[in-house]
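User: Could you go from structure to sequence for me? I need the amino acid at each position, not a summary. Structure tokens:
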């Protein structure tokens, strides 16, 4: 189901939720708190009660201070204003309080998910629009990845060449790019192979722009807004499906791969996935083996045979190049009013390199095929 239709349908459900207030008129801070609490629930709990582990290894409890840390202007928001907003959400029965932590009620989970998806979509639209129009980011991609395809992942040309070589797409085939962003990678693959590509992403404005920019290639390029958690394509629609650093954002990797398997066209359907996995310092390093990552386990449990390529060393070099390129282009990023993009890339690279050096982070390419 397309994302916007999905949001409309979910919004209609709000009339049946515990309180009768008009959620469309809810103050923005309350909506943001619900979206942040929904974000908490997409991450796993640590061994410590009420503490959640985020992808960047931060461990945060859903207290007022923890929630506030996710607000861009969090430092400027008075804690008493946060407290007043959470108290209002308690009265609405959208959240519950346990000690100093806040959690979504069943009805709050439904509302929070809607606000989370809406805000992620708007934020991602904004980010991709800015990077797509940034000279600094274009140069950054050329320096780091070898070609400017507006990458917002860790995919350099060596990895992309492997994907294209392994998939062996033909002009007669159709492939789905799951979480395609601005569609530049899908376009590149189609240009090289002649295959028809369908790009799906939840950022509606980005999809609209991709459609407009490739109108002369519409016979083989299609871009649609959609939710990776609720794919509505017919079974057997695709000869191949590509996921480049997107499975981190689904609610269940196992359930998503089960759906993707059904979308593959037998007997030669194949699934190409790039995926990074990290383990905590107190976890066994065994979960970093390709067969033990979340993707490896999900592929096996869904009866998909697969091969892997270890790109950990390659990705380490990429992260090092990211820091170097970002520092060289810092002045241009600042001049464009994109200092936050520079800072995000540098900090993300430093965090990831630390985990790679510590032996707690890996990157794999998976190629799975239907069993004949």
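Assistant: Here is the amino acid at each position, in order:
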């Amino acid at each position: 189901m397309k994302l916007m239709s999905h949001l409309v349908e979910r919004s209609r459900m709000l009339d049946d939720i515990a309180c009768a207030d008009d959620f469309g008129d809810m103050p923005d801070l309350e909506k943001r708190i619900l979206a942040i609490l929904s974000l908490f629930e997409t991450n796993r709990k640590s061994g410590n009660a009420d503490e959640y582990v985020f992808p960047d290894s931060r461990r945060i409890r859903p207290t007022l201070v923890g929630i506030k840390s996710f607000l861009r202007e969090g430092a400027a928001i008075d804690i008493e204003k946060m407290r007043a907003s959470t108290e209002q959400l308690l009265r609405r029965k959208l959240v519950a309080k346990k000690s100093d932590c806040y959690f979504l009620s069943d009805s709050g989970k439904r509302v929070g998910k809607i606000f989370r998806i809406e805000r992620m979509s708007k934020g991602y639209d904004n980010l991709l629009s800015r990077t797509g129009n940034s000279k600094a980011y274009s140069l950054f991609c050329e320096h780091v990845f070898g070609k400017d395809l507006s990458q917002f992942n860790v995919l350099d040309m060596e990895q992309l060449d492997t994907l294209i070589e392994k998939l062996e797409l033909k002009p007669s085939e159709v492939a789905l790019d799951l979480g395609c962003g601005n569609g530049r990678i899908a376009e590149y693959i189609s240009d090289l192979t002649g295959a028809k590509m369908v790009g799906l992403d939840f950022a509606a404005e980005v999809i609209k722009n991709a459609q407009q920019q490739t109108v002369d290639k519409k016979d083989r390029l299609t871009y649609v807004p959609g939710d990776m958690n609720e794919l509505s394509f017919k079974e057997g629609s695709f000869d191949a499906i590509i996921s480049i650093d997107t499975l981190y954002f689904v609610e269940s990797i196992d359930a998503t791969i089960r759906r993707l398997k059904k979308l593959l066209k037998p007997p030669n359907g194949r699934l190409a996935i790039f995926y990074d996995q990290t383990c905590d310092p107190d976890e066994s390093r065994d979960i970093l083996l390709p067969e033990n990552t979340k993707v490896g386990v999900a592929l096996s449990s869904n009866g998909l045979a697969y091969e892997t390529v270890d790109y950990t060393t390659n990705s380490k070099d990429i992260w090092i190049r990211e820091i170097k390129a970002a520092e060289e282009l810092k002045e241009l990023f600042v001049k464009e009013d994109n200092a936050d993009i520079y800072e995000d890339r540098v900090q993300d690279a430093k965090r990831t390199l630390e985990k790679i050096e510590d032996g707690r982070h890996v990157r794999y390419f998976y190629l799975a095929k239907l069993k004949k």
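One structural detail worth keeping in mind: The CA atoms of residues 194 and 304 lie 27 Å apart.
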